[in-house]
Amino acid sequence: MVTMADVARQAGVSVSTVSHIVNGTRYVKEDTKKRVLAAIRETGYTPNSLARSLATQNTHTIGLAISAMSNFYFADIVAAMESAARAAGFTLLLADTHDDPDEELQVIQALHQRRVDGILYAPSTGSAGPALRYLAELSVPTVLVDRCAWSRFDQIGTENVRATAHLTVHLAERGHARIGLLAGHQDVRTFAERTEGYRAGLAEAGITPDDALTVFGPPGEEFAARAVSQLLALPDPPTALISGNNHLTIEIIRALRARGIKVPDDMALACFDDFEWADLFAPRLTAMAQPIEAIGAGAVGLLLDRLAEPKRPVRTIRLDPVFAHRESCGCPPE
After folding, report:
1. 238-283 pLDDT, tens per residue?
2. Which of 12, 104, 263, 311 has the fewest beta carbons under 10 Å from its own?
3. Which residues pair with 240 in a beta bridge?
4. Strands ordered across the beta sheet of 142-145
5. How many domains does the chain have?
6. Residue 291 backbone class (left: φ over 0; alpha: ψ -120 to 50; beta: rest)
7. What angle do CA 330, 239, 180 make, to 5 degrees?
8. What's the domain range around 29?
9. What does DSSP assign to residue 98?
10. Paired residues of 120 in beta bridges
11. Beta partners for residue 210, in sequence order
12. 128-139 pLDDT, tens per residue?
């Protein structure tokens, strides 16, 4: 097995010089660095990452706590974060939280105990959540992703309020006065913000809100079927629906089709979250498209900045989504 001493002999330098170059622990002249890197390539030396982490107190790993398996929007964000982390020389350790506060705490603790350099986290709770409190009390370098739940941490996500208000006003301008909203639990910050935007859009359109038109629950087939049935059973049912995320969108369409209700002929539909095949539906889905690549890369960038400068002021970054205007809202094809 090739050792650091073999590299040192090949390059004509001391073992400590090779160590400083490999670990980045001291400035080394550029010509010496080039000789050592050439010797590493020629000898096939592979640095011992465990030994390096013990020496530098850095593991070059980032923990990611997110409900990626049940939410394909998050799966796309994970891919963007992994790409950005790898480009910076970090390995991403993924743990699925299932959007359960107790599991989130267990996952966060497990990642922290594995000495990750920092954590990326999509919390399902507000600032009172146990995992967020754990991270705050131990001052773990953390960036909140998508769900900007506590300004105590760096965080990045989409602007939800104005965007959902835009969807609501757009449906109102199509002549709809009974607009329903299906969204996830209000403990999840993104859903709470989208609900706020829905109500702001009703106010802007001069529509009196009706709490019977808002249904909250865990995104999934069972909830969507129950919510759609509940809304359709109202004495004055909605003529348009807004979906709180992409998972709900699919289940709402499934529930409407099971009842023979056509979109947009019988029910207009506008969605938060675009996805790769939204324009393959018939009709094509009108949606707010989140900047997934920018959120993923931005989250990693915020964490790397925090690791490089632990005392820097915290930052909250909000990115504007893009309105994908298609036909499910009842508008003719553009």
Report:
1. 999 999 998 899 999 999 999 999 999 999 999 998 877 767 778 9
2. 311
3. 179, 268
4. 91-96, 61-66, 118-121, 142-145, 154-158, 316-319
5. 3
6. beta
7. 110
8. 4-56
9. T
10. 64, 143
11. none
12. 899 999 999 999
